Amino acid sequence: MSKYKNVLLIFVALILFVYAGLISIYPSFKSKHFDINEFEKKALPATGLNVTFNYIDIKVKPNFTTIITLRDLDVQYPDKQPLLKAKVVELTTSVSALLFKNFDIKSLYLKNVQYDDQILPSKENKLAYFPEAFDPKYFGSKKITIKPGPVSIKDLNISYTQTEPYSYKTEGLREANYTKEEVKEFLSSYNFKNIKIK
Q1: What angle, rounded to 10 degrees, do the helices at 5-25 and 180-188 form?
Q2: Of 13, 124, 125, 182, which residue has the fewest beta carbons closer than 10 angstroms?
Q3: CB 171 within 8 A of CB 184
Q4: Does the predicted TM-score (pTM) go above 0.85?
């Protein structure tokens, strides 16, 4: 679990961004009304990251289970250095997530993922500044409450870069799975600003 903490952090955090974007355009929450350009403009000041994707689909089943699917997700640092790419991101949640600031993640599935892990000269991970930087006010919310769920990843490739002294290596995993309890414990260990982990 500890080896992939940063990977898991960015996955779950990205889902929070999508949630916040949905809230900002509610009640027009259907896929065809989702303004991707507007979301991408708000993502940078809200997160300190460049977040783009090419496709979003939102489905609400008769039992009110809500499935949000993204394709070609690309996340970069402000200096354009790569952070995360995912061909498919599928979030299963409840319809209430589209109405309120309390988000219940039933499950999160990602496929064909490339994650770039970067260590700064200070020996800190470049992603370490993210929890303090996250500010959902740009999506119309002062606080976000999240109830984590299990995370499943298929075809995960990770590159590790250390700037001083320079080193680079890659690693691939066909599958990675985390239980609800593991995700909650991990997220609770971080000092997320403006986010409550339930």
Answers
A1: 90
A2: 124
A3: no
A4: no
